[in-house]
Amino acid sequence: MKRITIPALLAIMLLLCQSLSFAAVSQFTGTWKNTDPNTAGVTKLTITGNGNSLKMRAWGKCHPQDCDWGEVNAYAYAPGVSSDIDQNAQAVSALFTTGFSQTLVIVRPISRSSIRADIYTRFTDNSGRSNYTASYTFNRQLIVGPIGPIGPIGPIRPMPSVEEDCISFNPSTVTVKNLDGRWTIVDGNHLMFNFGPNRTEALQALRIIKHYRMNSSCFVGRPDPSFQYLLVNGRAPQGNMPGEDCVSFNPNTIEVRNIGGSWKIVDGSHWVFDFGSKEDEARKAFAIIKKYGFTRSCFVGRPDPSFQYLKK
Questions:
Q1: Are strands 254-259 and 91-97 parallel, antiparallel or unpaired?
Q2: Average of pLDDT values for 105-125?
Q3: pLDDT tens digit string along 226-240?
Q4: How far, CA to CA in Å, does 46 sit from each of 54, 62, 130, 163, 179?
Q5: Exposed e or buried b for every residue in 96-134, given b needs 16+ CB within 10 A?
Q6: In this predicted model, which residue has the larger pLDDT, 182 or 152?
Q7: Could you give the CA distance from residue 208 to residue 219 in angstroms, rounded to a whole number?
Q8: Which residues pair with 175 in a beta bridge?
Q9: Count of Cβ atoms closer than 10 Å to residue 214 Cβ
């Protein structure tokens, strides 16, 4: 079995120290295209799996078509031995070996939709060529597979542009009030969430908003929204809170499907959101989930939740 050399390990540690923020493993998974269309190096990467079982595939510039380097095991790195690697991954590495070289690829996040890959190539054929390093920036490719009723596959439809409908509020001033017998979360004179007679669920939702410091409430399909989400300074809420009721899904494997006449966002055999006959709203919600990298759908008051939110 091939081993990563001491210089390669030092390179990994250096890059980990340079990283300024942590990311969920879902930040790394997906298909990535080099931002430089004229690159002579790595043109595309795919990363699949989870924190304990990752795979990376790479393509290098060749003619008449790019060379497929194949798929190899990849490894995520957390900031500490006790860190949750799925939620706090800081880098991902993979080693590609040929008959004449070894290439170490170390990937770090730049933003929700871009990564940096640092490449270290060492020649093993005694050719006298110098080992070398290179760095590339990649953008996530949002690939929407064939979507339609289960059965014959219909045409691929483009993902809609995301025009969001959000209302800002101050998490420091929101409170729960009883208005004519209905427990309501309000921000001043702005009525935000109605919980009917359920004071306990209203207070739990208030604690969640204040815990994450959510400050935007967003909708798809007002005045009767089919999909709602909350943001924190324009980003997905992150972290954990004791007592949460959440269901995980993979934003890289979700699809929009028509199942029995109802448009749904599904992750494999598990349907995550139901939009009824509203196909356009299903596709817009799909694009929003991809944009923010939501990985968990959370509830207050199941099986008939009075409050729902998403987070990474």
A1: unpaired
A2: 90
A3: 999 999 999 999 999
A4: 10, 18, 28, 28, 52
A5: beeeeebbbbbbbbeebbebbbbbbbbeeeeeeeeeeee
A6: 182
A7: 18
A8: 186
A9: 20
Distances in whole angstroms, Cα of residue 52 to Cα of each of 32, 74, 77, 192? 21, 9, 10, 40
- Please state which of the ranges 37-46, 62-71, 212-221 shows the lowest mean pLDDT: 62-71
**Residue 287 has what DSSP assignment?**
H
pLDDT at 29 over 70: yes
Q: How many Å apart are CA 80 and CA 17, to the nearest integer?
A: 12
At 93, the amino acid letter reads S
Q: Are the C-beta atoms of 64 and 74 separated by less than 8 Å?
A: no
Give yes or no for a cis peptide into 160 (omega within 30° of 0).
no
How many angstroms separate the Cα of 228 from the Cα of each of 167, 168, 169, 191, 299?
11, 14, 15, 15, 12
In single-letter form, the type of residue at position 290 comes to K
pLDDT at residue 64, rounded to an integer: 65
Per-residue tokens: 12: 């990994």
Handedness of CA 283, 284, 289, 292 (dihedral sign): positive
Q: Which residues of 147-161 are buried (b: 16+ CB within 10 A; e: fewer)?
A: beeeeeeeeeeeeee
Structure-block tokens of residue 24 = 């969920």
The encoded tokens of residue 138 equal 């990649």
Contact yes or no for 251/289 (Cβ under 8 A): yes
Residues 281, 144, 73: CA angle, nearest 5 degrees: 135
Q: Are 57 and 69 in contact (CB under 8 A)?
A: yes
* Per-residue DSSP letter, 244: -
Within a 10 A sphere around the Cβ of 35, how many other Cβ atoms?
11
Contact 281, 289 (CB under 8 A): no
Question: Residue 57 is encoded by which pair of tokens?
Answer: 């595939």
Query: How many residues are listed for the chain in this entry?
Result: 312
Give the list of residues 6+ apart from residue 211 with CB closer than 8 angstroms, or none.
Answer: 241
d(CA 304, CA 257): 24
pTM over 0.70: no
